[in-house]
Write a structure and sequence with these properties.
Helix content: 40-55%
Number of helices: 9
CATH topology: Rossmann fold
Strand content: 15-25%
Order of helices and strands: HHEHEHEEHEHHEHHE
Structural class: alpha/beta
Strand order of the largest sheet: 3-2-1-4-5-7-6
Number of domains: 1
Shape: globular
Length: 259
């Protein structure tokens, strides 16, 4: 996992849930979780959600049949929000939210049937160590299913640097090819990588239009004039790097070989 600190402040958590739905901090909300996990038999399985955010992802995984979900994150504010969400939902016996430290995962070998992730691993600097840990905690034959953000080849442009500045978050992006190489080198097989940049490019423009239209009053009330202006510009900068193909969302699937 990545360094433990609060990069996602309350304003950003509020804004992201306005865009993607209560309990969701990444594009597509519950439907995106269904798309990533839809081809996997979750019935009765133990799932590890690495970078669980506010827990909305984990609730969707339960509706898809998961027997138990362990959600982990490194940000105390987010973890407390997720725990409160799960407490309110009455799902404490099915979903366990844990605050973890950077480094090796705090689980024995072969603990989980499935590892899931949704647009969180982009914050992790050491991709090789990350996928080695995911491989370790998966049972033989276990599955990996995730969405994440990639970059285009070459150095960042000024537009990407400006996007990072507006986001105020630490990104450690690699190309989709590099991402796939790390997964293969960790020992996974049946690796499948799907670039979804074109789809999210369209969605991001629609999100920006909603922020400038139907969501404007709510954003002003919740974020104030300065906060509203900042996030509108943040989203505009997002559409620029998506349009240029420099920021490249993707979906990833793989399997740990059976013993």
């Amino acid at each position: 996992m990545t360094e433990t600190h609060e990069e996602y402040d309350p304003r950003m958590l509020t804004l992201l849930q306005m865009i993607w739905g209560e309990g969701f901090l990444s594009p597509g909300g519950p439907q995106a979780v269904r798309e990533i996990a839809g081809g996997i038999d979750l019935h009765g399985k133990r799932v590890l959600d690495v970078g669980c955010g506010l827990g909305g992802l984990d609730q969707v995984l339960l509706t898809l049949g998961a027997g138990h979900v362990t959600g982990i994150d490194v940000a105390p504010l987010i973890v407390e929000g997720a725990k409160e969400r799960i407490r309110r939902s009455g799902l404490n016996n099915k979903i366990d939210i844990q605050l973890v430290a950077p480094g090796p995962l705090p689980f024995p070998d072969a603990s989980f049937d499935i590892v899931f992730g949704k647009d969180a691993w982009l914050h992790i600097p050491d991709k090789a160590a990350h996928f080695a840990e995911l491989f370790r905690v998966l049972k033989p034959g276990g599955r990996l299913a995730a969405g994440d953000w990639m970059k285009s080849p070459g150095p960042y442009s000024k537009d990407m640097d400006y996007f990072f500045e507006m986001e105020g978050l630490t990104y450690h992006l690699v190309t989709l090819a590099e991402y796939g190489r790390h997964i293969h080198e960790a020992g996974f097989v049946d690796v499948s990588l799907k670039d979804i940049t074109d789809k999210y490019r369209r969605d991001a423009h629609e999100e920006l239009a909603r922020m400038q239209g139907e969501l404007k009053g709510m954003m002003l009330a919740e974020l104030g004039e300065a906060g509203n202006a900042h996030f509108i510009e943040d989203w505009r900068s997002l559409t620029v790097v998506l349009d240029k193909g420099e920021l490249r969302p993707a979906q990833i699937w793989a399997r740990k070989p059976a013993a």
